Amino acid sequence: MSEVLCPGCFHHCLILEGKNGLCRARGTRSGKNVCVNYGRITSLAMDPIEKKPLKHFYPGSWILSAGSYGCNLSCPFCQNSMISMADEFSVS
To answer: How many other β-carbons are positioned within 10 Å of the β-carbon of residue 14?
Structure first.
């Protein structure tokens, strides 16, 4: 069984065919390193613009925030762990 080196982050995971790396967002499919969370939205919300790093960009307005699963860190204090630590099988 072949392994593919993932260049996505500093962990440089060696990922077996059909498996995912530590981040859960990159995997090996057909011998290639691919983004397995592409097009998979796990969080969608309207947020005040002040919550984002867009200084002086239409103050008082709202912005659509969209996100997917996957993270290469394992911070014990993560406020988004239900989203970031999900995987392709727990997202419908």
So the answer is: 13
pTM of the model: 0.75
Question: How confident is the model over 1-16, as a mean pLDDT?
Answer: 93
In this structure, are residues 15 and 26 in contact, taking their beta carbons and an 8 Å threshold? Answer: yes
Distance between CA atoms of 68 and 87, rounded to whole angstroms?
A: 9
pLDDT of residue 14: 97
The one-letter amino acid code at 23 reads C
pLDDT of 89 strictly over 80: no
Q: Cα–Cα–Cα angle for 58, 61, 62, nearest 5°?
A: 125
Closest CA to 87 of 74, 67, 70: 70
Task: Say which residue, 74 or 45, is predicted with more confidence.
Answer: 45
Q: Label residue 17 left, alpha or beta by phi (over 0 means left) and psi (-120 to 50 means alpha).
A: beta
